[in-house]
Amino acid sequence: MPRLNSRLKCFDILNGGANGVVISTVNNVKSISTFYSTTTTTEGPLVKQSLVRKFESGFLFGVGAGFDRYTVQARAEISSSATDVGAQASTKKAYLLLTYKF
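-> structure tokens emitted (102 positions)
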């Protein structure tokens, strides 16, 4: 009878939620235009203050596997952005984690 020996200790499927709160922001832009000898400088907010959210929420999911003292996880996060500048304002992030236990 064939037997498969593996050092794989665990296999994880991850899912959950993520929340974020804006503590402080820097929302300024400075534009300097030069046309021949004339220089024009404009300053103002990058995004209208009414479009900046103070709270961000999202969804996490991923998979992971552990062997010996190592663990590898691949995660993805889809969340609402901290700014509401249009329908495509959501953010998508990917993480690859490698951990070692002492």
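The mean pLDDT is 81.
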